[in-house]
Amino acid sequence: MTLLQTLQAVVVGVLVVTGTFFLLIGTIGLLRLPNVYNRLHATSKATTLGAASLFLAGFVYFGPRGAGLISLVGIVFLFLTAPTGAHMISRSAQKIGVPFVEGVSWPVPDDGDEQGETD
Questions:
Q1: Is the pTM of this model over 0.85?
Q2: For 101-106, which contacts have Cβ atoms below 8 Å and span 24 or more sequence positions?
Q3: pLDDT at position 115
Q4: Closest CA to 56 of 43, 83, 82, 74
Q5: Cα–Cα dist 80/77, whole Å
Q6: CA distance 94 to 44
Q7: What is the DSSP string of 61-118?
């Protein structure tokens, strides 16, 4: 095994461990947090980082062609769709009246427009 292959294996290992850690944290947040808004926060951020780390590990392992290129496209797709999906779910929850945890409310805009309030 050459030095380059050893370095590649170490980088892939670190990225897989990092991705697994973030996915585990997102999963724990999904199971443990009290409502849809908190669960969205935990899952959208942590799982995006976790999945991106795993895709990046695939790119480092396979190289810039074939499956490695697909991994890069997966990262771009993930960063475009995950925040949009989380925002859509959050707005849908607000529109159907899912309550916040006690003591939390929607931020009021500076101009005093109460449009974002659900109470």
A1: no
A2: 101/34, 101/35, 101/37, 101/38
A3: 53
A4: 74
A5: 5
A6: 17
A7: HH-SSTHHHHHHHHHHHHHHHHHHHHHHHHHHHHHTTPPPSTT--PPPPTT---TT--
